[in-house]
Amino acid sequence: MDLTGGFGARSGGVGPCREPIGLESLHLGDEFRQLVTTLPPENAGGSFTALLELPPTQAVELLHFTDSSSSQVAAVTGIGGEIAPPLHSFGGTLAFPSNSVLMERAARFSVIATEQQNGNISGETPTSSVPSNSSANLDRVKTEPAETDSSQRLISDSAIENQIPSPSQNNRNGKRKDFEKKGKSSTKKNKSSEENEKLPYVHVRARRGQATDSHSLAERARREKINARMKLLQELVPGCDKIQGTALVLDEIINHVQSLQRQVEMLSMRLAAVNPRIDFNLDTILASENGSLMDGSFNGTPMQLAWPHQAIETEQSFHHRQLPPPPTQQWPFDGLNQPVWGREEDQADGNDNSNLMAVSENVMVASANLHPNQVKMEL
Amino acid sequence: MASADKLINTDVPEKDVFALHFLQSLSNLRTQSPLNSPNKSIDRVRKIKKAAYVSMARAAGGTSRLWSRALLRRAAKDDNKSVRFSRRKRKVTWKISSKRKRSNQRAPVVEEAAERLRNLVPGGGGMETSKLMEETAHYIKCLSMQVKVMQCLVDGLSQK
C-alpha cells in the first residue's frame, strides 16, 4: 500500500503537481525520497514526463525489494506474467532493456494508480463508490484491457511484496476488472445492479458476465428505469398482472387509456343530454353529488337552507343582479379547499353537515361572485 | 389515493378536488352559454368534454405535471378567453433529438408502444420513454378519477 500510495501521489500530480502524500509512509532511503521530491518540481510543466520517469525509478526500488524476499519473488514470477520475469532478471542491476517498455507500463500505471489511489485513499469507503470510480476509469482503460490486466497484476504484486495490512482489499481494488472478466472473486460474485432514482447520479454495478461499457451501463440503467415504471403501470391497469410479456402489457395499457378517454366522452354526452339547457341548479347538483360522493349521513336540506336566495335563480337574474364585490383572491383551490375538504372527511358524521354547508356555501358564493365580464373563466 | 411507490410520485388529489373543479367549470360554462346560445347538442358536448379535461388538468396539479400543462396549453390555444393559462418560460429540451436518433437501438417493442402512448397522452411528444410512462401512470389515475366524478354526476342528475 505504501508504494501504491506513492504511485497514486505521482499519478495524482498529472494535472497540478501535488505534495507526495504517501512518501512519509514509505520507508525508503533518503536518496529515493530526494529523487521523488525533486522530480515533480523539475517537470512542473510536463508532469506527465515526470510520471514516466518516476515509476522506472520506483520500479528499481521494486527490484531491490524483490531481492530482500525471495519467496515473494516466486509469487511475482508466478503471477506477473510477462512483466515480472524481465524485472526479476535485473536483480540488483539498474540496467533496463528498454526504457520505452517501462514507460509504457508507467503510462498504464498512472491510470491504474489513480484507480488504486481512489480505492486506497477512500479506504474503508463502501464498495459501492469504488465501482463508480472504476466505471469512470473504465473509459480510459477501455482501449487496452489486456495490458491493464498485467499492470494491475504488477501493482498487486508490489502490494503483496510490501506486506500491506489489507492485501485483500487491494487485490479487490486492483483486480476488480479481472474478477469481472474471470469471475474469480467471491465478494463480487453476487453483485446486483443498484439503481437509486433519487440521486442525480445512477450508481450501477455491472453484473457478472456482462459488458462493462459505459454505454451499455447507461443502457442497462435506462432499461431498468423503464421496467420499474412499467411495473407501476401494470399495477394500475386492472388485469395486467396476469399477462406475461411486455408487449401485451403495453397493449393493455394503451387500451386502458383509450377506454378511459372514450368513457369521458360518453359521459360528457350523457351530461349534455341530461341537462338540455345546461342550466344547472347547482344546489341540486351538489345535493345529488354529495349524496353519492360523501359517505356520511348527508341530506340535501341543510344545503337548500343555506342559500335561499339562490333557489329561484335563473340565468337572467344571475347576470343582472347586484353582485357583491368579488373576492380579492382568485379561489386558490389547492391552498384553501383541500384542507377544508380534508377536514370534513376526518370529522365525525355529526359535524359533517355543518362543514359541508360551509364548503358548499363557499362554492356558491365564489361562483356567484364571478362576474361574467370580469372572469377569465377558470374552466 | 396514495401511491405505493416511494421513488416515483404518482399521487393524485382526492375525488372531491376533481368534483369541485368540474362543477365550477360547468357553472362557468353555464354563464357562458346564454351568450352564444348553442342549440346544437354537439357543441354542447364538445364544450362539456373540454371543460371536463381542463378541470381535470387543473385538479390534477395545474402545471406541475407535463401532461396537464400540455393539455391546458392546447385548450388555451383554441380559445384564449375561456381558459386562463399563464405561459411558463420554455425549457429547452435538446435531448430529444439526439435520443430519438438512437431510439431504434432501444427495445423497439417498447419504443413503438411508446409512440402510440405519445399520441394518446397529451404532451407526450417531447418526452423520453421513462418519463412518458410516469406521466401515463399519473394520467391514468386522473382519468379514472374524473370518470368517477362524472359518473356520479350523471347518476345524480338522471335520478332526479
Automatic annotation (TrEMBL), chain A:
Residues 191-200 have a biased composition (Basic and acidic residues). Residues 210-260 form the BHLH domain. It is found in: Nucleus. GO terms for molecular function: DNA-binding transcription factor activity; protein dimerization activity. Signal peptide: none annotated. One of its GO terms (cellular component) is nucleus. Residues 117-137, 148-172 have a biased composition (Polar residues). The keyword Nucleus applies. InterPro entries: bHLH_dom, bHLH_ZIP_TF. Its main location: nucleus. SMART domains: HLH (SM00353). Residues 117-202, 316-351 are annotated as: Disordered. It comes from the Eukaryota. Keywords: Nucleus, Transcription, Transcription regulation. This is Myc-type basic helix-loop-helix (BHLH) domain. It comes from Arabidopsis suecica. The lineage of its organism: Eukaryota, Viridiplantae, Streptophyta, Embryophyta, Tracheophyta.
TrEMBL record, chain B:
GO terms for molecular function: DNA binding. Its main location: nucleus. Keywords: DNA-binding, Nucleus, Transcription, Transcription regulation. Residues 18-77 form the IBH1-like N-terminal domain. GO terms for biological process: regulation of DNA-templated transcription. Pfam families: IBH1_N. The keyword Transcription applies. It is found in: Nucleus. One of its GO terms (cellular component) is nucleus. This is Helix-loop-helix DNA-binding domain superfamily.
